[in-house]
Design brief:
Blueprint lengths: L10 H26 L2 H17 L1 H5 L6 H22 L15 E3 L8 E3 H10 L2 H12 L4 H8 L3 H21 L7
Antiparallel strand pairs: 1-2
Helix pairs in contact: 1-2, 1-4, 2-4, 6-8, 7-8
Length: about 180
């Protein structure tokens, strides 16, 4: 596969995109926020829109000036929808309480068991798991990384991350069942 090199963009193009940012960033931010319902995600969407504009300047330069707001709005909507889909695909639940305190016990948030799991016992079971499954599970559910982020970190595919998490959860469930600490309610 041949990698295509991009030509550097000129100063006038960068200035034009900066002008667009100055003129329309507030409007585009509010559009993004209406879609993603989160200020931080809306900022990410806005940044993504202008990153794309800088990566593909020829497409934005071809748009007539009277249609540029419509073009940027469409880019913002599409980017926001992609972010929403990404968030949905990479949802995770924390293994800590809402206040951030771990305490001595923690409820399993995945299936909302009424059973409480002893954290020391859980730590021992995690230590007995293969490193790759344990690390993937910890990055996903304890540290809150998304599958894509873990895949980039470990230099594996997202599918591999999901498979490792699934395997690790099954191993953990089996270990808990063997010790009588797991009850399906």
């Amino acid at each position: 596969m041949k990698i295509r090199k991009r030509k550097p963009i000129g100063k006038t193009t960068v200035k034009y995109i900066e002008q667009l940012y100055m003129l329309y960033s507030r409007k585009l931010f509010y559009i993004a926020r209406n879609y993603v319902k989160d200020i931080d995600l809306a900022e990410d969407v806005l940044q993504g829109v202008f990153e794309k504009a800088l990566l593909y300047p020829n497409s934005i330069l071809k748009v007539p000036e009277d249609e540029i707001l419509y073009f940027l709005t469409a880019m913002t909507k599409n980017t926001a929808l992609a972010v929403i889909q990404d968030e949905k695909n990479n949802e995770h639940e924390s293994l800590t309480y809402d206040d951030g305190d771990e305490g001595d016990f923690v409820e399993d948030p995945r299936n909302n068991y009424l059973q409480m799991i002893d954290l020391e016992s859980l730590k021992q079971k995690l230590a007995a798991m293969p490193d790759r499954n344990r690390d993937t599970l910890l990055f996903r559910y304890v540290y809150g990384f998304k599958c894509k982020e873990i895949a980039d970190l470990f230099q594996i595919s997202e599918r591999s991350v999901k498979l490792r998490c699934s395997d690790a959860r099954k191993q953990l469930k089996k270990m808990l069942e063997e010790d009588g600490e797991y009850f399906d309610s």
